[in-house]
Structure formats: C-alpha cells, structure tokens
Amino acid sequence: MEITESKKLENLKKIIEKYFNLNSDHDTSEFYTAQIKINYYELGCVITNMLKMCILTLENEGHIKSSTNKNPVNVSLILEMVLEMFPLNEFEFLGEINEMVVGDLKGISK
Question: Which domain of life is it from (predicted)?
Fold first, then answer.
C-alpha cells in the first residue's frame, strides 16, 4: 500500500514538531539560554574550532595554573558549552528524514 504525499507531509510535520520544539514550554527562571543565529555549517565550524582549542590547550598545558600561566583555560567549561551547542535533536530529525527517504528509494528500486 502506497502512502500518499499528503500523509508523508503530515508525518514530516509531526517529526518537525517533535525535534525542533517549536512550542517552547521550558521554564527559563533557572537558566539563561543564549540564542546563536547561524547556519549548521557555521555552527559546525564553531564547535570544531572550540574542540581544537581544547586539544591545543591540553597539549600545551594551558589548563594548568602556574607561575607563568596565571589564568589557565577552563577546558571542562568549554567542553560543556560545546555539548550544549551540539544540535542532537536536529541530527536525530535528519536521521529520521534519511530513513524516510531511503525507505522510499528502496521501495522504488524494487
């Protein structure tokens, strides 16, 4: 049985609502959420550069307080920020879209 295009669009809308949290029900009294308006490529570049900075800091012992390094880099804090920036919901969404498309393509090729 073939699913109609309108049914596919309906399923897509449900998936989008599930992953993109369009209706924000979060209580912001405890947390401050910074909104960064960049595209996924730019976000990937920012995350990559932050991870590289952590690697270089650890390799050069920039995270250790010493007589020459009075203000060490807090690598744990940076990595926590990277985790918060990582768009896991969107990746899960893309995974479901991929499964939908690959499923459609497999159905076509048979």
Answer: Bacteria
